[in-house]
Write a structure and sequence with these properties.
binds 6-O-phosphoryl inosine monophosphate; 10-stranded mixed sheet; 5-stranded mixed sheet; binds magnesium ion; 19 strands; alpha/beta; binds guanosine-5'-diphosphate
């Protein structure tokens, strides 16, 4: 059985926790998009792991971990993660495979990301400043790209870096009046990355196809969420990769038809970090209640997340374009204590009601939510193990969301720990 986990909102839905749980029944976990902009939290007993590049399955010692072609790898972050796990006696040796074709995020990408964001002032996108946009731009531009396979020929890489850094420095100086970066320093770092990472580098497409033939069970771990997809999300307030389910085949070299089920992950409310329209945002005491109770602060940047009600229009769109089979609904516990809970069932745009998410972000920013209001509950549900033991109003909320998004909710999160999960 091969499965793919995808975020159905604007990221941070709780994918890390779901992947950690489902990894128990898998042989291989694959990260197939994004980079160190992702922050996936896994909590096991008293240990909290915040993973940015390693698949969330990596905390289980017997799982094979794969980072595929479409991931942009920041070697500093990856090596730190490998080291952090090693300190907890979890070794990646012999069970981590990184694609030859994965592109590398270097210091000049992070610098470019930061300078561009600063220069945009109030028009900034609110990126994570992890160099994601500039690295993917270099990938698409081709001439100035550095991939894992470049670590195999350091002499050639040195020449390439000379050209790239010269070009980048011209931009830094002319556009931002910023200090140049040194080719020697970048090259020195690359040599050290090559030493440490070469043992992990391989043809992951071949590895995954052979694994499928051998009957291995593969779990694909999406990063970000559908609404942050470069082509299908709320452009330009998106990330620079295809973070919807549609990105999984190109991201990994495995066709979608080889995946048996696509599982979408959503929260029982909505959060978003960074700029961009957010129709159900509650920039008020309700939003603050959710932020405090759900600890809604970014795993990667620590920024307070914008919070709002569940948006069934956005999630239905993510389900539709991803052909999502079933959903995990996380953070149900966070809603406890709210007298009433709103679910957005449609948008009103220019006086017209619609239930299909608009393709145009300018139009989306004019959408006002039409809510269905249901009563909340006060009970703490963090130790509930069965759906039927949840308060009736919590059960009704889940059924209502199922009706609106038209797929079954088979996993329910009632707390951050592995054990705080209800299966249906
Ligand atoms: P990801 O990026 O989708 O993996 O999600 P993040 O890890 O960035 O953010 C989700 C946060 O919610 C993490 O701190 C998780 O530990 C936590 N979490 C996940 N599921 C639940 C849940 O059902 N209830 C609560 N209270 N916290 C959860
Ligand atoms: P996970 O995998 C939430 C957001 C940023 C910003 C936009 C562009 O943890 O769900 P980027 O640095 O990618 O150029 O930023 O995308 N963003 C995320 N928001 N969760 C993430 O990942 C995100 N990765 C990027 O906040 O709005
Ligand atoms: Mg996250």
């Amino acid at each position: 059985m091969n499965s793919c986990i995808v975020g159905l909102q604007w990221g941070d839905e709780g994918k890390g926790k779901v992947v950690d749980i489902l990894a128990e029944q898998s042989d291989i976990v694959v990260r197939y998009s994004g980079g160190a902009n992702a922050g996936h939290t896994v909590i096991i007993d008293d240990n909290r792991f915040a993973l940015h590049l390693l698949p969330s399955g990596s905390v289980r010692p017997n799982i094979v971990c794969v980072i595929t072609n479409a991931v942009v790898v920041d070697p500093d972050t990856l090596l730190k993660e490998i080291e952090t796990l090693a300190q907890k006696s979890v070794t990646l040796t012999g069970r981590l495979f990184i694609s030859e074709n994965a592109h590398i995020v270097l210091d000049y990408h992070k610098k470019e990301d930061q300078l561009r964001e600063e220069s945009l002032g109030k028009n900034r996108l609110g990126t994570t400043i992890r160099g994601i946009g500039p690295c993917y731009a270099d990938k698409v531009g081709r001439s100035y790209a550095v991939r894992m396979s470049d670590f195999r020929n350091l002499e050639k890489l040195k020449d390439k870096l000379q050209t790239i850094v010269e070009y980048k420095n011209k931009i830094f100086s002319a556009l931002y009046n910023a200090k140049p970066i040194s080719t020697d320093e970048i090259f020195k770092k690359c040599k050290s990355y090559a030493d440490k990472l070469l043992p992990f580098i391989t043809d992951t497409t071949e590895f995954l196809h052979k694994s499928i033939v051998d009957g291995k069970s593969i779990l694909f771990e999406g990063a970000q969420g559908t609404m942050l997809d470069l082509d299908h999300g709320t452009f330009p307030y998106v990330t620079s990769s295809n973070s919807s389910a549609l990105g999984m085949p190109t991201g990994s070299g495995i066709p979608a038809k080889m995946v048996d089920r696509f599982i979408g992950v959503a929260k029982a409310y909505t959060t978003r970090v960074g700029a961009g329209p957010f129709p159900t945002e509650q920039d008020n005491e309700v939003g603050q209640y959710i932020r405090d109770k759900g600890h809604e602060y970014g795993t990667t940047t620590g920024r307070p997340r914008r919070c709002g009600w569940f948006d069934a229009v956005a999630v239905s769109y993510a389900v539709t374009i991803g052909a999502i089979d079933s959903a995990a609904l996380m953070h149900l516990d966070t809603l406890a204590g709210l007298k009433e809970i709103n679910i957005c069932r449609a948008y009103k745009i220019n006086g017209k009601e619609t239930t299909f998410f608009p393709a145009n972000t300018a139009i989306l920013s004019q959408a006002s939510p039409i809510y269905e209001t249901v009563p909340g509950w006060d009970e703490d549900i963090t130790e509930v193990k069965n759906f039927h033991d949840l308060p009736a109003n919590a059960q009704n909320l889940i059924c209502l969301i199922e009706e609106m998004v038209k797929i079954p909710i088979t996993i329910i999160g009632v707390g951050p720990k592995r054990t705080q999960t209800i299966f249906r």
